[in-house]
Amino acid sequence: MPELPEVETVRRRLASCLPGLVLDQVTVNDPSVSAQGEAELRAALRGRRVVALRRRGKYLIVEFDGVLLIVHLRMTGRLVFAPEPGTRAPRFAARFAPGTELYFYDTRRFGRVWAVAAAAEDEFFVALGPEPFGPRFTTTYLRDALQGRSAPLKSFLLDQRRLAGVGNIYADEALFRARLNPLRRAGTLAPVEAARLRDALLETLQAGIDHNGSSIDTFVGPEGDRGAFQEILNVYGRAGEPCRVCGGTVRRVELGGRGTHFCPRCQPLPRGDRLATGGRDALARERAARRRTARQRAARERTSRERTGGRGDKP
Questions:
Q1: Identified catalytic residue from 3, 6, 8, 63
Q2: Could you confirm whether 2 is annotated as catalytic?
């Protein structure tokens, strides 16, 4: 899923060319992309001039005079300047005068667009937590938000009501940078650890922005260019590989339906009641999976020996 750095990458590129242009055509090829429908979107947006490009969390905002076009890319959405040959039609397209077109492709069709009155922006985002780079996201805010939370630390970071824009990739990477285990109960962090986590989040997100996001799956920028943050990932997507810092083995567990990656040496498992219930369950599933894999491997080896009369791989 495109996270804050990917959406910020798109915003910066669009901000270099869209302000001042007038939207003169809206096309909706997939009605599920918006509850408002083509006619309503066209009535709200057509003929309006782009004022600015903004972002709130994972939401891209195209600001017109009095109206906002809000886009959430969700899992596989991408905004590009040119049609993608060999794919289905874009779910949504906008033409700006003079001569600029923007296409919204979305393989899994989870992305959404909205036309919202500018005066209703705060109401639209009322449930969204503070921006990581905004003035509200202080160490004090984070420390207070963590207090009393029994959920795993990783799950806390993914809750958009607590903090806007952080997703699976950057949560894993920030926790590694902060040397904090993702399965730990969020409410057990000491003040110094909360400060370390805040710094790690900002550093990780900024690194993602500096590398134009992560192109692990489908993400590309508006001109079709790939991001590069995936080239320097420490733990995400590296299960079974050596840790870049200590040489230990990176582990992967399922937490809340999401793959979660960490280094047990650099991010020691918490003891006692500091391990969240969800974390205990994730570890139990991972250990059961490893035992199952070991049994399957042993069974294959036995079968192989029986077939070769105990000679193994010898000729």
A1: 3
A2: yes
Q: Cα separations (Å) of 120 from 26, 66, 68? A: 22, 10, 9
Q: Which fold has domain 139-274?
A: Helicase, Ruva Protein; domain 3 (1.10.8)
More confident residue, 274 or 212: 212
DSSP string, the chain: ---HHHHHHHHHHHHTT-TT-EEEEEEES-GGG-SSHHHHHHHHHTTPBEEEEEEETTEEEEEESSEEEEEE-TTTEEEESS--TTSPPPSEEEEEETTEEEEEEETT---EEEEEEGGGHHHHTTT----TTSTT--HHHHHHHHTT--SBHHHHHH-TTTSSS--HHHHHHHHHHHT--TTBBGGG--HHHHHHHHHHHHHHHHHHHHTT---SSS---TTSPPP-GGGG-SSTT-TTSBPTTT--B-EEEEETTEEEEE-TTTSPPPPGGGB-HHHHHHHHHHHHHHHHHHHHHHHHHHHHHHHTTT-TT--
Q: Over the stretch 213-239, which tens digit does the pLDDT of each residue have?
A: 999 988 999 999 999 999 999 999 999
Beta bridge partners of 117: 67
- Looking at 49, 196, 244, 258, which residue is catalytic? 258
Identify the CATH number of the domain defined by range 4-124: 3.20.190.10
Domain ranges in the chain? Answer: 4-124, 139-274
Q: Indicate which residue of 42, 58, 95, 238 is catalytic.
A: 58
Q: Is the dihedral of CA 73, 78, 82, 88 positive or negative?
A: negative
In this predicted model, what pLDDT tens digit does every residue of 30-84 receive, in sequence order? 999 999 999 999 999 999 999 999 999 999 999 999 999 999 999 999 999 999 9
Active site residue 58: yes
β pairing state of 77-80 and 100-106: antiparallel
What is the predicted pLDDT for the residue at 311?
60
